[in-house]
């Protein structure tokens, strides 16, 4: 009997939504009483029963009062809409309309767009094209229109919008059952509307929202038709019929899981919801199978479903292992589904899952953008993607509404100048209206990689306008590049030393249907395409995903407390078996210099004799070098494979042991790269574009430092941003480097010391302990009869 | 006696400054009276004398009263300052300070700058460097500081500023006599402070203004010292001692003339003024001598001095034959000196000279800029120069103040957000304050070239965001390029089909001292560097200035009344003897297209068999071609001379007679170039950068259409801007051309007819009469049994 009562109370409890504190109170009370009944055996069982009855009655009454009072202030999650925009949200939005400028503006824009589309009519064409083609773009447009029209119906109470959604849904319901698998064969998981299940999932994520909005506009028969002919077979197709797509840990699966999950929430189908959260069970899979991007479908024993997709790719810091470009893409399904789940089934506490990682991921993602909001290029990523992307509007609004109303997010929302037309967007609009926003300050930050945060990290050093992105992560799943310890440098939101990004023109049909180009594998993923070490003209991990995905770099130091000397240091010991790489990047703000500069120390130690290439992908126009180079009459192809086949050798020089200097101009700013060289190091001016029969690559330049026949090697360089040019005033200011010389004062297994001298004969010495990163350790080192003592892993001192 | 009285009256008249109406009245009166005396012989000569005496007395009295009353309201031009800022101007400025925002702001900025410089102290170093180097940049800075400090002294009545100018001037006066000719040998006219007299002249133009401002702050002895030790020898050096510099028609000479003229005005030295206005007389010169840019010093019999420099390079439309980049540079000395002359000696009526060409030139120059204000690239020109250049602030302000207060200029001044700190700047500031500004609307315009406007022209077609610049001018003096009938295309202020500009990094010392690079001659000036015909891999006029400067292209049609069909057509018959070139460029706004498109018809007819190359310097990334090309494993150098040695051949294809299409992406916009080709025409993808040992060139792309073994040839193409891409939404809109086919329906000596068909099977036919440009002529032409009749040189009709 006790058991029955417990169940009863819990059921009632369950219906008292959101009244968490009261639930806790009840549970404590019940547990105390139960204990009492079990221990005080002296009381007769009748008395027990009577007391119990009183208890049940009073509790039920209390609980129902609570429920009643709640209904007056907070929405019930039963009924529709209840996923993204809720019944209560609709009420609140309506009562605020006209007084919430950013929301009103978004609403007006959306209304204008949808009104025009309703006027033009819609098309539901027979699927045929890859992305960029008509049928692809039309189905893509349709789901966006339905989602927006659904919301407009709720907010504006105008049946026209509901009717538009209804008409389109019925058109889909009529045609969907007749459509075979999409005719384009490229995908490992072909969709029905689109060439891949991924896009079909996109469709369902949006359409489920539209359905939620017009649910009550439809009668039961209509709903039955839609669910039977369209939604359930659709959900089954992308899950049960494509487990190789659905049962993964990958952004593809996240979309699939969320799509099915959201439709499950609308239809109140717990079986389907469980499938979304925990995957399609009892499916055999082949652990060697790969997707068409070259990524494994699934590792043996790997968890599946939505929770698994939160667990694995996100580090505890919220870094998404594929990188910000894909996080931006994945963040929408993660967060839109989490939001729906929170609204509809708060007991899942999805935003608390894994110590609140979904909210943390928003902060991480925003920190992975440059000062203009463009995401840093890590792994496969298209340049120009930024937090102005539509999915980031939703991300920021959800982050604000469900993540504790961080006022910094309001300033981003204000720049986005748009909010989502739902409860979260309303919260943001009200926050802005009330003037609550504060600047979102991006500071230097290290974001760990790996489900447990122990698979390396991305280190971002920010110093005034400079932003240095240093990569020492895990592989990044199928979108990973083979570029351990690579970096990129930005100034004032412009890339100065570049990461190439991916070789793809997303959705531009002319370029391979808008999909990945073959040069993505042969060039963009290869090590030589990045600002890091390539050994013996072979990519790290032999350019093999199977090997690369088993390893990660390791953090060594990340120290940014002193904003004038910020240090990120990391080690990679698996990229080339037998060779250890240790790179330390430092931003130094020194009053003797116009701007902060970057010190870069790359130590290589190997058991074998190798050739080491360290490219420097500066963007801009060469102004001057301090070394004589021999420009070839016609370029040569630099190598045969591993990306080298895509590089032209344009010029070369032999180093004489002096510092080399490369001075260049970009965006009317002068930069200088100063690097220490040994006698007979080779310098190669290269240009991207060889073996590129269709002009898929950008023909940008690089300067490669090459050390031949070396076991150990030490690459040390400084990057300065020191001057400006104006084509309007034609004035060149500080066109030259401020550095006279950089030199290695000391280099052993234990310590490396570098001296940097200015033209005014001031000098600084940076010393790092190479094997002891205990920040409390005391060090003492004598160099040229001078004793240096310090505490911690590194020191920067004036050299008098 | 009559003669004497006339002189007397004129002298008196002369002193009644600015009272033009009264002058006119007096002259009319006198003339009437003189006529009266000559005709009424009956009146005795005594009576005549008596009447005359009365007249003289009354006129003198009237005139002097006028002068007296004027002094209370308008400044007298005697005294100082009187050149740029006048006594009256100073009064008016002071009384308006604090209520003229744009002026107040400029004043505050200037004050802040000069205060800081005064605090830092100045240096007058011994001349040593080329531009970009310390001594060059310091002397350059000094003259700007003196000019500004002088003005501040006048406006703020603070002796600190006068003292600063005085100290610096005395430092110069002390050192100047000891300095030899500048040690750097590159110039045909070496200066003393700078490596060329040109920069010395810059110094004097600014310094004369400073001297004018502090003239009364100095005592006579001080003035004597400065004039004797510095100003007179300085003026003599750049004029008498360097007549090869001073006695030219060239922007160099304009600076020299203005410099000497302005100092003459300050010192009230009429002999020196005459030298400025009319040149150094009695100097022998060698007509074969050239300057270091390759331009002739002077043509035989050519006029010299300031007026000659107004006469010759400016066409009656105000187009400056060297092009807008140099006009921008020259406009400052032209206008600053004209302003000084107008203020000090209005009787010269300098702004009325040559039918007011100096004011017209301002309008012409502003029209030679793209929608963002960047000047079009014609001849030697550095990209990025715009009407935000300091000299344009002065140009616009002078244009407003002395050119009839055109409210359009106020909108440009407002964008410049700065005014000159003088009478003209005050007028602009007051105009803006009073809200008088109107948009400066740039329309399609043809600007004739040549002193008499009969040496070709520049035609600018503007259609919505598109701006097409079509060049059919004279050579453009020593800064001219060999590119008759070339064009460049801009959209929304961005260059789409480029003119390379010059090969020079102005004032960037790292690049050849900031001077012209040798690639300017070997590449940038050559025909193949431009979007026009090169015959037999030889530049037009054999690339020889001597030949090129004797010829010009000829206007044929410029018709822009119908903004939907705008036509510019021109002929060139001297670039290649025996070959005639006729190019017609049309912008067509057609509702079947997203944006206006450009139709380009280049007719070549020759007595001989030749090879014709027509390059197309598109900027951006190749998306797709409809023809298969063979990309070379490594590029080849395209040719041996005439610029071909700087082009790499990267890929080639053989045309099959079908239209070729090149689709590309620039600044997130999609463009397509469609061109008619004959069987076996060759298509070459080229890239700039061969034989460029120091990375002086930009490595941009071109597509060359090559017709071999042809006498006559017809190149017909269409350029469309048709779509957009967003890297944020990743949406590609209208990525493809709207054109199915273009074809030549008819081509004879008399007529050329081109048909353009859209993908929706609509077609238009453009017909041009090739030999009769009478706009009233009636034409009838039957093509494929269809009769076309029209009036005027061309027609565009629907083809049903």
TrEMBL record, chains A, B:
Locations listed in the record: Periplasm
Domain Heparinase II/III-like C-terminal, residue spans: 449-703
Descriptive protein name: Alginate lyase family protein
Pfam families, A to Z: Alginate_lyase, Hepar_II_III_C
Keyword Ubl conjugation: no
UniProt keyword list: Lyase, Periplasm, Signal
Segments forming domain Alginate lyase: 148-368
InterPro entries (UniProt xref): Alginate_lyase_dom, Chondroitin_lyas, Hepar_II_III_C
Keyword Zinc: no
């Amino acid at each position: 009997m006790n058991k029955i009562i417990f169940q009863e109370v819990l059921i009632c409890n369950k219906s008292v939504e959101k009244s968490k504190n009261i639930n806790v109170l009840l549970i404590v009370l019940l547990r105390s009483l139960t204990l009492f009944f079990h221990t005080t055996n002296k009381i007769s069982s009748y008395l027990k029963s009577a007391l119990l009855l009183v208890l049940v009655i009073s509790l039920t009454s209390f609980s129902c009062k609570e429920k009643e009072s709640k209904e007056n202030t907070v929405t019930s999650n039963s009924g529709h809409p209840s996923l993204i925009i809720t019944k209560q949200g609709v009420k609140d939005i309506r009562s605020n309309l006209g007084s919430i400028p950013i929301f009103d503006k978004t609403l007006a824009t959306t209304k204008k767009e949808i009104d025009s589309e309703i006027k033009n009519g819609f098309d539901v064409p027979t699927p045929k094209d890859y992305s960029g083609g008509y049928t692809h773009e039309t189905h893509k447009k349709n789901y966006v229109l339905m989602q927006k029209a659904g919301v407009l119906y709720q907010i504006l109470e105008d049946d026209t919008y509901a009717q538009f959604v209804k008409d389109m849904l019925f058109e889909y319901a009529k045609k969907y059952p007749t459509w075979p698998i999409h005719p384009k064969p490229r995908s490992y998981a072909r969709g029905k509307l689109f060439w891949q299940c991924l896009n079909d999932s996109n469709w369902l994520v949006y359409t489920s929202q539209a359905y939620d909005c017009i649910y009550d506009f439809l009668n039961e028969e209509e709903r039955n038709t839609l669910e039977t002919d369209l939604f359930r077979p659709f959900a089954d197709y992308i899950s049960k019929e494509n487990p190789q797509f659905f049962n993964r840990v990958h952004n593809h699966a996240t979309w699939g899981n969320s799509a099915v999950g959201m439709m499950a929430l609308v239809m109140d189908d717990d079986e389907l919801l469980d499938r979304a959260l925990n995957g399609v069970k009892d499916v055999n899979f082949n652990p060697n199978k790969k997707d068409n991007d070259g990524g494994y479908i699934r590792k043996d024993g790997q968890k599946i479903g939505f929770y698994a997709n939160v667990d694995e790719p996100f580090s505890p810091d919220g870094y998404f292992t594929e990188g910000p470009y894909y996080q931006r893409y994945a963040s929408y399904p993660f967060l839109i589904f989490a939001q729906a789940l929170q609204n509809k089934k708060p007991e899942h506490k999805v935003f608390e899952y894994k110590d609140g990682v979904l909210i943390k991921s928003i902060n991480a993602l925003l920190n992975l953008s440059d000062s203009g909001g463009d995401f840093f290029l890590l792994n496969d990523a298209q340049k120009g993607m930024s937090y102005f992307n539509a999915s980031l509007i939703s991300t920021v609004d959800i982050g604000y509404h469900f993540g504790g109303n961080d006022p910094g997010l309001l300033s981003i929302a204000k720049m986005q100048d748009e909010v989502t037309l739902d409860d979260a967007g309303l919260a943001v609009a009200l926050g802005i209206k009330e003037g609550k926003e504060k600047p979102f300050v991006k500071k230097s930050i290290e974001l760990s990689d790996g489900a447990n945060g122990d698979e390396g990290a991305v280190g971002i050093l920010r110093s005034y306008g400079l932003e240095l992105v240093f990569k020492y992560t895990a592989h990044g799943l199928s979108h990973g590049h083979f570029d351990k310890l690579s970096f990129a440098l930005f100034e004032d939101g412009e890339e100065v030393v570049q990461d190439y990004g991916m070789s793809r023109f997303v959705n531009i049909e002319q370029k391979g249907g808008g999909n990945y180009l073959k040069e993505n594998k042969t060039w963009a993923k290869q090590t030589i395409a990045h600002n890091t070490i390539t050994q013996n003209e072979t990519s790290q991990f032999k350019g093999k995903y199977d090997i690369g995905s088993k390893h990660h770099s390791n953090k060594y130091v990340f120290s940014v407390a002193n904003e004038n000397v910020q240090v990120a240091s990391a080690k990679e010991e698996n990229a080339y078996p037998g060779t250890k790489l240790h790179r330390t990047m430092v931003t130094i703000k020194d009053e003797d210099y116009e701007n902060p500069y970057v010190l870069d120390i790359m130590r290589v130690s190997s058991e074998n004799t190798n050739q080491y290439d360290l490219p420097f992908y500066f963007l801009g126009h060469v102004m001057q070098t301090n070394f004589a180079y021999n420009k070839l009459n016609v370029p040569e192809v630099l190598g045969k494979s591993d990306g080298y086949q895509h590089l032209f050798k344009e010029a070369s020089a032999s180093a004489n042991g002096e510092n080399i200097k490369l001075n260049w101009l970009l965006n009317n700013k002068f930069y200088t790269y100063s690097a220490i060289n040994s006698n007979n190091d080779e310098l190669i001016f290269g240009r991207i574009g060889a073996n590129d029969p269709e002009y898929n690559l950008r023909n940008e330049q690089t300067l490669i430092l090459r050390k031949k026949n070396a076991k150990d090697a030490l690459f040390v360089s400084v990057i300065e941003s020191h001057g400006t040019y104006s084509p309007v005033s034609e004035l060149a200011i500080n066109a030259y480097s401020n550095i006279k010389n950089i030199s290695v004062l000391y280099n052993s297994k234990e310590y490396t010391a570098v001296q940097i001298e200015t033209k005014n004969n001031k000098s600084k010495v940076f010393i790092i302990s190479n094997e002891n990163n205990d920040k409390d350790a005391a060090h003492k080192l004598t160099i040229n009869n001078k004793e240096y003592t310090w505490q911690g892993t590194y020191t920067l001192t004036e050299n008098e």
